[in-house]
Each structure stands twice: as C-alpha cells, then as structure tokens.
Request: fold
Amino acid sequence: MGIVVCVPFFDPHPLFLPHFIEFYAANKAKHKLQLAWSSRRPLHNAQHDAVRLALDHSDFTHVLFVEDDHWGFPVDGIERLLEDDLDVVGFHTFSRKPPFHSLCMRRRDKSLPIDQACVLNMTPLERVSADEPLIQETDLLSWGMTLVRTSVFRQIDGDPFECWGKVPTDSVFCELCERAGIKRHVDFSFHLPHGDVTQERRVPLLRVHEYEKALGLQGYGTGRPTGGTLSGTFFSSTDGNLGGAP
Reply:
C-alpha cells in the first residue's frame, strides 16, 4: 500500500510549509508516501499528474489531495481518514472569505448536476450538534485534505482535471462520482484552517465583517486583511492568530 500526496504549490499560506513538512515527515515511511509536488502550475495540471502517477503504479492505493492555502494538517490525519474506510473522504473546511461558510455542501434540488448547481441550490453542511455523526455524506467536497481511493479514478467516466474553467475541479470530480454511484463524505473530527480562518475564529470574524459592512468600511475579503479595517486590528497576518490570542 502506498499513497500519492498531491501538492499544488502556487500561493502558499505562511503556515503551510512548516505544518506540511512536519505532517509529511511523520507519515512518509509509515504510509509509504510518494510526493507529487507541482510548483506554480495550474491546479488541474498538478492534480492530473498526481492521479496519473497513482494509476500507473499498482502500489498506490490512494491519492491524498491537499491545498497550499490550508495548514494545521493533523499528524494522525491519514490514520483517521483510512479508518473511515470510504472511497472519498476529507476533513471539514470552510471558505476563507465572508461569510466563511462550510465548503462541503448538499444540493436542495438533487435533479441538478453538482457541477452546474449554482450557489442558490447548495446548502453548506455543518455539524451543529454533538449528537450528529462525525462522518456525513455530502454532495460537494473540497480538496483541503481529502483522501481518494485510486480505484475511484478507474470507475468514473471522464477526467475531472481535464481543464480549468468557471467550474472548479472539485465540483467536476464530485459530479463524476455522483454519476458513477460513488459517495463522498466529510469527516468532522477535524476542522482544517483555511487562509487565516480557523473554526474557532469563524463566528468572531463574521461579526467583525458584518460590523465593518454596516459602517461602510472595507470588509474582510481576501483571506489576509491589512490595516485600515477593524479586521486588521483583530488579526496578525504574520502568525495567523487573532490579535492577543496565543
């Protein structure tokens, strides 16, 4: 068993490299990781090459997708995702821009294709109660830290990484999985930080953004706010922490 780790390295968050290096070093030998690193190449090209590497070598049972604007990868993350024993499963993450909604979503109208469903047809999926299961089925799942069985790419009809356009590759991939009867799941046991946003900061940041908006100030909208807004006074763009937070 081996796992190809797909890393499109284009515009990384400052915390991506130190966190990813620690994660990869702790797991390389244990899980026979093979790094598929692509620097400053289009996302779909990097992902296509990683999947092709896995398909061309029978030793690779999975592809682990990560994105460089995420960080905080749990060292035991691969064990957790493997224990879930699912075709497609990834940790929960969320938008780095207001309103910081969950990036795993379910369709309201199941008759509409995932890759053609506009945002009005999508409901962000959240685990709002401890009584809800940690692992839940979802229509759409992002690439933040997602583990996919290599066999999935043999079952789907089409290449989700053929091109890059208005529809992102995660939407195309999830639609191809839907057509092939392959379910996607989100694991809420870990919330992966995205940009400068963590699970604990989502609500405070949204309140700051709404307050700025009400005052007519320039709101938080890029993932790394600068001075001149209330957001900038609450954030440290160098360490990713809220001002005054450890």
